[in-house]
Every structure is written in C-alpha cells, then in structure tokens.
Automatic annotation (TrEMBL):
This is NADH dehydrogenase [ubiquinone] 1 beta subcomplex subunit 9. GO terms for biological process: mitochondrial electron transport, NADH to ubiquinone. GO terms for cellular component: mitochondrial inner membrane. It comes from Homalodisca liturata. PANTHER family: NADH DEHYDROGENASE [UBIQUINONE] 1 BETA SUBCOMPLEX SUBUNIT 9 (PTHR12868:SF0), NADH-UBIQUINONE OXIDOREDUCTASE B22 SUBUNIT (PTHR12868). It is found in: Mitochondrion inner membrane. It is a peripheral membrane protein.
C-alpha cells in the first residue's frame, strides 16, 4: 500500500468509497471468472453497505479499519496496473517533443495553422522582451561562450 500525503481532510464517506474501490480492484486481481467476480463483488458491496448504514460512528470506524486491514493483508501479490499509470507498461512512453521543434516546421505545414503560429510568434516576442527586461540583453561576450 502506497503512502499518501493528504491534501485535504477525508470524510468518513470518502474513506469508505476509496476502500471499496481498492477492494473491487483487488477482487479483479484474484477472481478471473466473470460470474465468480460478480458474486464476490455483491458480497463486498453488502459488507460496505453494512459499514455505511451503521448508526454508531465508533463501530462504523472500527469496521472500516478492520476492512482496510483485511484488504492490506489480502492484497494481490502482483496487482494489475493500467498501461499508462505509474508502473504500467506504457507509462511515460510517448515522446513529448520540445517546443523548439515547431520552429523547424516547413512553411506549408505552418500555413495549415495560421492562428496558432501567429499567436506563438507573438508569445515568443513577449518572452524575449520579458527576458531582456529581467536579465538584460545578451552581450557579444555571451555569444562567444
């Protein structure tokens, strides 16, 4: 189970929903027959409905903690990872070309997107102006290094 840094306070309902989703994903890893999976998913849902419908908050919290502990102990040894998720086979595979590649497009290619390239040239000018205002204009000595 990965360590998560909370960015906001999680309500009890949020914790139950997250635990339920992790439980279903874990079931998918263990049970490969669709009919068996549906039976197990219905039983899992009933377990979480019992937690949600419990009127005593202390008991409901202890039930959720016991469920999370059980989930942790029975997590599949090789959980499924989505291809483009962290750890998946296709994670970070697509090449993201740098912006300067567009400078080498042929003029006929650029002509297909006139508004984009006009705005891009304007923004490049604005960036150069900002740079010169912030750091000063380059000197001849800067060009030789």
């Amino acid at each position: 189970m990965a360590i998560r840094i909370p960015f906001r306070y999680l309500t009890f309902t949020d914790k139950v929903k997250r635990c339920y989703k992790r439980s279903l994903r874990n079931l998918e890893d263990w049970v490969h027959d669709r009919a068996d999976f549906r039976i197990q998913a219905v039983l899992c849902r009933a377990k979480f409905d019992e937690i949600v419908n419990c009127k005593d908050p202390v008991k409901a919290n202890s039930m959720l903690e016991a469920t999370e502990k059980d989930l942790f102990q029975n997590t599949h040894w090789q959980p499924r990872k989505w291809p483009k998720s962290v750890g998946g086979v296709a994670y970070d595979r697509e090449v993201k070309p740098p912006d300067w590649v567009l400078d080498y497009w042929h003029p006929l290619e650029k002509a297909q997107y006139p508004e984009y390239f006009a705005r891009r040239e304007q923004r490049k000018k604005e960036y150069v102006e900002w740079w010169e205002k912030t750091y000063g204009k380059p000197t001849k000595e800067d060009h030789h290094h």
